[in-house]
Amino acid sequence: MASSSNPYEHYNSPHVEDDGDLIDPDDANLDDLDDPLQHTTTQSSRAPLTGNITSSQSYLTSRIPGEDRRASGNTIDESVWETLRRDLLAVWSKMREVLYPKYLFGGSMLDNTTSIRGAYANLREAGLQGAREELVGLAGRAMDADNLLAGGGMSEGLKDWDLWGPLVFCLLLSLLLSFRALEEQKSLVFSGVFAMVWIGEAVVTMQIKLLGGNISFAQSVCIIGYTLFPLVIAALLSALGIPTIPRIPVYLFLIAWSLAAGISILGGSGVVKNRLGIAVYPLLVFYLALGCLCFIS
Amino acid sequence: MDPNRPAELSWRLSSHPITLLCFLAFRMSSLLVYLFGLLFTGNFVLIFIITILLLAVDFYYLKNIAGRRLVGLRWWNEVNPQTGDSHWVFESSDPSTKTINATDSRFFWLALYAQPLLWVGLAIVAIFRFEFIWLTLVVIALSLTVTNTLAFSRCDKFSQASNLAGSALSGGGLAGNVVTGMLSRLFARG
């Protein structure tokens, strides 16, 4: 048997690659060898990790500007009732500003008492000269309504805006106005008033922003939405069907109330200095239009 | 709790079952009222109001309560009273003090991403049926749900990035975009 003469005849010799770069030559010195440290740092978990973190912000979410924060733990673990209570109180504090426009009625009085007290202190300190300056200042403040309104800072309740007020009052207004509409026009009236309120709020807000008011868009929509409360009363009276003649003075009063609340909150927060009239004129048009809708419904 | 335990979609495994059930109920009720409300009443105005109120409640509940309790994330907007600039803040809880239940988080992300997709589908239906009055409702729903989705995925990016950087894991878990982030949320880590 010829084949038995070579027992390794059927042995497939393994294919050996040229391992010149796997096995280092014997005469290589330290500079020729691969640096294991350098080699691994380029492929260790650290480098792609940092690369990934910067790229992990996807296009959509990285477009959202903002601050990332680690929760302090005191409010992220609070109970549901505490959250609800805090937000309801925030809503109530905004309602209170509308129910009682403090910069027009209370705020100016409060200003006067503090400045009278200040005047008294000045009188004792500086004598006649100081008293005269103080009186001039007092008169100047009383004459300049813009200045008076711009005096107060933005109230606490308006810093954190929400859209509950605008939503609820807008829905109530549309609902109450559609009650008296013809049966087949109900949904048309409802959606018309609904759209008109939101578009009106957006337009008035745009105008305030273009005049250079230092207020954010959502904040202004929030304020205007809350000041719709008197007009909701007007719509309720219309839905109850009070006669036409008493409507005129009552509705004029309610529109004036809305306007007073709007001016006092927007002006009291120093939104547009020296241009309050031109800023609130569209607000007046908006309230008048809604008032007329209540009147004719 | 063993973090490697598979996250099953069963509310019994949740650590906040009431919060989770309320969350799912609010999420689904607005869609159900929109879809099937007209079977019970022909009153467009009533359905519109109920759907909007349910959407608003869902938005509030997800933003302020469910996100905080289920996955330890929260976001809000701050206004600088001097300049009137608004400023978004995205907050995530410290993983060393609060452990997130895998079932809770899987339910949360599933519902969070599914809702806008469903409303997009309904928007297409409304466009092709020329029901533009209903389209306004769908647009409101979309803007509310998409806002929440984007804000929470933005929140989660920071939370994931800082957790991984802290524990120096390999970068494979860091998803490149919202979709893969969502998929890895749902299927890989649960």
UniProtKB/TrEMBL annotation, chain A:
Residues 38-61 have a biased composition (Polar residues). Residues 1-72 are annotated as: Disordered. The keyword Transcription regulation does not apply. The keyword Transmembrane applies. Residues 18-35 have a biased composition (Acidic residues). Pfam families: Yip1. One of its GO terms (biological process) is endoplasmic reticulum to Golgi vesicle-mediated transport. GO terms for cellular component: Golgi membrane; trans-Golgi network. It is a multi-pass membrane protein. Keywords: Membrane, Transmembrane, Transmembrane helix. The chain crosses the membrane at residues 163-182, 189-211, 217-238, 250-272, 278-296. This is Protein YIP. Residues 159-292 form the Yip1 domain. It is found in: Golgi apparatus membrane; Membrane. Belongs to the YIP1 family.
UniProtKB/TrEMBL annotation, chain B:
One of its GO terms (biological process) is protein secretion. The keyword Transmembrane helix applies. This is Golgi apparatus membrane protein TVP23. Belongs to the TVP23 family. The keyword Lyase does not apply. Keywords: Golgi apparatus, Membrane, Transmembrane, Transmembrane helix. The chain crosses the membrane at residues 20-38, 44-62, 107-127, 133-152, 164-188. It is found in: Golgi apparatus membrane. InterPro entries: TVP23-like. It is a multi-pass membrane protein. One of its GO terms (cellular component) is Golgi membrane.
